[in-house]
Design goal:
61% helix; mainly alpha; 82 residues; 434 Repressor (Amino-terminal Domain)
């Protein structure tokens, strides 16, 4: 899935949490966060600290992958370098 904004990420994680029938409280307890921290992330993800995002991802058994946009010079340079 391609995510291009904090809001899209929050919606995706909230939908996933609900599909797995987990409450905000259940998710928070897994990694030592408060329920209101999860709520704040889902409502206003742009203000969330990166450490909190990684804790949320961890509690959902997810990880973050970052890759260059396709068609840009830097990605092509990496291919040529190797």
């Amino acid at each position: 899935m391609k995510i291009t904004s904090p809001e899209q990420l929050a919606i995706f994680l909230k939908d996933t949490r609900k599909q797995e029938k987990q409450t905000q409280e259940m998710l928070a307890e897994k990694v030592g966060l408060r329920q209101d921290t999860i709520s704040k992330f889902e409502k206003n993800p742009a203000k969330t600290q990166i450490e909190t995002l990684f804790k949320i991802l961890s509690s959902m058994n997810m990880e973050l992958h970052i890759e260059p946009k396709t068609g840009h010079g830097r990605a092509e340079a990496w291919k040529e370098e190797w």
